[in-house]
Write a structure and sequence with these properties.
By secondary structure, this protein is α+β, with helices and mostly antiparallel strands. 44% of the residues lie in helices and 19% in strands. It is built from five helices and six strands; from the N terminus they run E-E-E-E-E-H-H-E-H-H-H.
């Protein structure tokens, strides 16, 4: 494994842990040259469905895109990295369980909103307000009222 700090190819595994649900392995590594530590994750390589955008383009599913969107909605909210990772794992499990070769981006957005609603109501409202492109304040108010119930 190449060190992300200095590029050295010789690193040592310092600690190995299996996730709670045994879906991935977390490894702490240390570079033999610069002695900095970093974390790697080992998970099975599976074929996710292609994501069909609203304009008809088909793109590859990318976990970092979902993580980035969720992190933006969860900015300055009291939600741990582990909770976010678990939510993304549930989204990915759902995508795989659908057994489809293609999934509409709107369906993926709904899965993300469902997980955000469980994690943090404020993040859910943030994400939904951008994702659903509200045209007026009444649509936003209806969403907030839905969350309050």
């Amino acid at each position: 494994m190449k060190c992300p700090f200095c590029g050295n190819l010789e690193t040592q595994v310092v600690e190995t842990r299996v996730s709670e649900d045994a879906d991935f392995i977390r490894r702490r590594r240390q570079c033999s040259a610069c002695e900095k530590r970093f974390t790697t994750y080992e998970r099975p390589d599976v074929a996710f469905p292609a994501i069909v955008k609203k304009d008809g383009r088909r793109i590859e599913y990318k976990r970092p895109n979902i993580l980035g969107s969720m992190n933006l909605a969860l900015r300055k909210r009291p939600v741990s990295t582990e909770q976010i990772d678990s939510a993304i794992e549930r989204i990915e499990e759902k995508l795989l369980s659908l057994g489809l070769k293609e999934v509409a981006s709107t369906r993926l957005g709904e899965l993300v909103m469902r997980e955000l609603k469980k994690l943090d109501k404020v993040a859910y409202v943030r994400f939904a307000s951008v994702y659903r492109s509200f045209e007026d304040i009444d649509e936003f108010r209806a969403l907030v009222d839905e969350v309050r119930r």
